[in-house]
Design brief:
The protein is an all-alpha fold and 70 residues long. It has one helix and no strands.
C-alpha cells in the first residue's frame, strides 16, 4: 500500500478522534485572532518584497529561449 495514503488515513483518524475527545471534554474552541489586515501587504512597508511576474521573467538559472526536444 502506498505510504502517502497510509499517512493520510492515520492523519484523518487522529484528527477525528482528537476532535471527538476534545468536544466530549467540552474544551473551548478558542477565538480566531487573525484579521483581514494580516493577509495584505503595503508597498511602502519596508518588509515588503516585490515578486517578479511569472509570465514576464525567466526562472532563476534559465539561459536563452526554450528549446524543442524531439
Amino acid at each position: 500500500m502506498y505510504a502517502g495514503f497510509v499517512a493520510l488515513l492515520v492523519n484523518l483518524a487522529v484528527t477525528v478522534l482528537v476532535t471527538a475527545a476534545l468536544r466530549a471534554a467540552r474544551v473551548d474552541g478558542g477565538v480566531d485572532g487573525t484579521a483581514a489586515s494580516d493577509y495584505t501587504a503595503q508597498r511602502d512597508d519596508p518588509t515588503f518584497r516585490g515578486l517578479p511576474d511569472p509570465l514576464e521573467s525567466a526562472p532563476p538559472g534559465a539561459t536563452g529561449a526554450p528549446t524543442a526536444r524531439g
